[in-house]
Amino acid sequence: MLACLLHGPVPNRPLPGSGLWPRAETEVTGIIGSSIELQCSYPKAESLNYNRNRIFWQIKGRFTCFVAGYFPNENMEEYQCEEFKRRTLLNEPKQGSASLELSNISIADELIYQCIIQKDINGKFKLIHNESISLKVAANYSKPVITGPVQLGEEMMFMCNSSHGYPEQRLYWRNEIDNSTMNITVQFTKELDGTFSVFSTLKMKVASNTKLRCTIEHKQLHQNITTTKCSIWRLTFIFFMVSLSLFLIVVQFFSALLAVQLLFYLDKVSFWIYAAQHPIYFPMC
């Protein structure tokens, strides 16, 4: 029965019995772990009635089970794909829309979904609408973390890393001080949950003043995540000079203290030497 109900590929011609052309495939983006509503917009002239219409969603090219659906006087739960059970809500049809809400989406849900609407005409269900929606999933990368610098001879190296993003996106550096040449490497690693971590290194000539930006550009989410690190070597030099000054002050203090103690000791020794050389005689009775 299921094979008869599910709808196969639609040819590139008007839909039978309707004179309507199938709509072009649309693309939507959902965040991993969240919910998304897949819109199915049919001609407003058609008013949907649960007693006269079949509304169902299926994976394009997969005809063994439903994502979600409603058939008059039919229990469709046994035909629902296992991975979509308890995650779908077929919203009540409104004028011009029969949307599907999909919850807790994952990378595995990145598929092409077909919205099929059939109408009972003289006792036979005929196709009146077929629409395809391509679901792309995405995940925000964590805020980049810049570490370093590590001095390598006449060069210094900085590292930038970020994690749990999807899919692979562009990572780039920018030197805000000048446009000096930078040697950059970028490496993506796929994690167990399917998301990606990225690690990048930057090598440049040693400079007294730096202002670097590490940015991840997420095109699907129209989002740039940036971290800035600046004046590393200048701050290091200042810290070194302050530390050196404090060290010299401490050395001078203890040197002065030692000198005072030494003078006191020498003065005491001189007294006893003088006393030994000039004895004092007391008269005897």
UniProtKB/TrEMBL annotation:
Source organism, top-level taxon: Eukaryota
GO cellular component terms, semicolon-separated: external side of plasma membrane
Biological process, per Gene Ontology: regulation of cytokine production; T cell receptor signaling pathway
Short name of one Pfam family: V-set
Main location: membrane
Keyword Thylakoid on entry: no
Gene3D superfamilies hit by this protein: Immunoglobulins
Residue stretches making up the Ig-like domain: 22-134, 153-226
PANTHER family named in the record: BUTYROPHILIN, ICOS LIGAND
Stated name of the protein: Ig-like domain-containing protein
